[in-house]
Amino acid sequence: MRCLLALGLLAAGCAHSPTPARPNHSSQSDTPTGPRLALGGAQSCALDADDELTCWGRFAEDAPDGRFHAVGIGHTQACAASVDGGAECWGEDTDTLSAAPDGQLRLLAVGQDFACAVVADGTLGCWGINGTHQAEPPLGRYVAIGAGRAHACALGEDGGIKCWGDNQHQQGVPPSGHFIALGVGDNGACGVREGGALHCWGKGVSRGMPAGDYVDVVAGAAHACAQSTDSSLRCWGSDTDGQATAPKGRFYTLGSGEVHACGIRYPTGKLSCWGNDYNSEGSPPSGVAKLELPEGTTMRGAARQATDRGDDGAPSVSFGKVIVLGLHSADGDDEDARALSFGLREASTRVPGYAVGDEAMSSGQLDLAHGCGGMDARCVKKIAKGLDAAAVVYGTMRRDKGAPDKRRIVELHIYEALSGKISGSTKQVLSLSQLQRPALLERSEQILRALHDSSR
Hints:
Elements: E1 14-16, E2 36-39, E3 43-47, E4 53-57, E5 68-73, E6 77-82, E7 87-91, E8 105-110, E9 114-119, E10 124-128, E11 142-147, E12 151-156, E13 161-165, E14 179-184, E15 188-193, E16 198-202, E17 214-219, E18 223-228, E19 233-237, E20 251-256, E21 260-265, E22 271-275, H1 286-289, E23 308-309, E24 315-316, E25 322-324, E26 328-329, H2 334-347, H3 363-370, H4 377-386, E27 391-399, E28 407-416, E29 421-431, H5 439-454
Parallel strand pairs: 25-27, 26-27
Antiparallel strand pairs: 1-11, 2-3, 3-4, 5-6, 6-7, 8-9, 9-10, 11-12, 12-13, 14-15, 15-16, 17-18, 18-19, 20-21, 21-22, 23-24, 27-28, 28-29
């Protein structure tokens, strides 16, 4: 089950907004955008950009109509948080879930016969059965919440994790330290530490836990999956139905049910599922098999950003800034370099994967950028950090030796701050006429799309 909302995605029993290595609380937008997923025991759901709900698998026909901004799915029950406040629940024996709190429920998690939510001010509220005190959440303000069968865990604004409810398998005793992501399974949980290492506790999710640096983690009944800094996936644990056999490729984000998992592929937006499909929970309808991604969406591995709060106190979501720096002319053709820099910035608003910030760069940052040549990511690292950018696009322009008065050769690179690596590069030849309007914007868009494709 997933306790992370990155790119607006939710997974079974959990709800979560993107969490930072070092949380801050500056203002951003107050609602998630883009597609959102929820995976559970034998059901899966998706919310589209219009907040409309589509579900498949067991009990899918009972899903409510209306507009919702969060979904949580447990073993046999599910709830969706209405945009108008409160929650609607469906599935098996939902009478125990009828006492959802009023008001805006920003994040939502469903266990077995109980549910918990992060409300508008960041505090927790739980309802349903309380035999193991699973409906008695701790005080504090939180950015993520997840539910297992009879316990729940939440990630605090300070990066600490708290768990409550059943502790038969030590699932209620989380490790200390600062975490950036949380995934809660039936009787266990996993977190990603501030430095990128995984840590799992409880039953069913610790065995086979891989080493490496990660940005996201999800957990099921007896398996777990994590997204690495290069946006590829690693899964471990029980593989009875293929749930621990992660598909190849790069993903925007992922989610997990009890015995199945799904992820949104980069850069196509295609929804891929693996694991159990007995109730068709791993077979999304054609309408949601490929999800429309908003402009500016970047891979979670490339653009993990701080979780902030809007003016109304609700958790907000940022997909990260991809800043296009000015090009450097190696031969002193500064007007040509400035023209293409302008074109790239303008065209970036039309190319998915870019969300250009308008920050003014210091002369020192520009000088450093202009000194970055070839594939030297170290040179641009300080710029990305100083601008708080998820990724930085930079490059060099040179005269074509075969036609110095007619053509320019441009080498463009994209540096991803989270992985600390160059993730893509492109080399293009431009005629001088393509550096003038109206051809400039069209050619700039072609260059950015080529750069985007090179980082797949």
